[in-house]
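Page 42, continued from yesterday. The earlier attempt failed because a stray header line got pasted into the input along with the sequence. Redoing it now with the clean sequence only.
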Amino acid sequence: MPQDLIERLNTYRLEHRLSQPQLAKKLGVTFQTVNRWLNRHMKPGQIHEYHINKLLKGAAAPKKRRTG
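This time it went through. Structure tokens are written below.
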């Protein structure tokens, strides 16, 4: 994954004045996941890279499906 994807994601977050939990909700992941990405403790998987790129390009964010 290009290192700059995370930099672009954090720039997006700051420009849109989103907290990490708000960004996590937009991406359909937990706050902890976003925090690990932004602090470079973990890299997003391919599906998350796809959703990050969609968000950065202005596409609608994924919605979590309810189960049960």
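Notes: The CA atoms of residues 31 and 56 lie 18 Å apart.
Reminder to self: strip header lines before submitting.
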